[in-house]
Amino acid sequence: MRAMWAFVTTALVLVSGCAQKDWIDRTLVTVDVTGTWEGRTAAPGSGSPLVSDMYLDLAQRGSTVKGTLRMRGTGTAPAPEPIEGTVAGDVFHFKNPRGTVRAELTVSGDEMSGTAQTLGGRLTISFRRVEQSAPSATK
Q1: What is the pTM of this model?
Q2: Which CATH class is domain 35-130?
């Protein structure tokens, strides 16, 4: 009987250890996406841009991210749209409030890439962080 209880106790300890690691992985934030990002999209496998330019302006607090997304296709001006997202590990998820854009991007330094689901279908996306020039001092 003692052997059975020892086995059950050991199994519970091991299972709780695995659950703890998954919880840590989901809440650990290893990247900061704050800043301005420029990007391009393409339908998977096509290699041709469907949206010529994309811009993200992001502010991150902990794992929560808020900002705007601007997309410019052929002949259209970029209209900013609010987005909200989260960072878990090195993965950034975001969506717009209307639910017409959802994305999952893997961040690596000043680059991030992944996929997005839009009304137009599934797209691959790649972004590069844009250096912001320091404001000039005024007299």
Answers
A1: 0.71
A2: mainly beta
The DSSP bridge partners found for residue 86 are 64, 93
Which region, left, alpha or beta, applies to residue 89 given φ > 0 means left and ψ of -120 to 50 means alpha? left
Alpha helices, H only, the chain:
2-27
Question: What does each C-alpha distance from 83 to 19, 54, 102, 137 come to in angstroms?
Answer: 31, 13, 9, 32
The continuous run of DSSP H or E covering 135 comes out as none
pLDDT in tens, 84-110: 999 999 999 999 999 989 999 999 999
Residue with tokens 């020039």: 133
Phi and psi at 120, nearest 5°, equal: -80, -5
Q: Where are the domains of the chain?
A: 1-28, 35-130
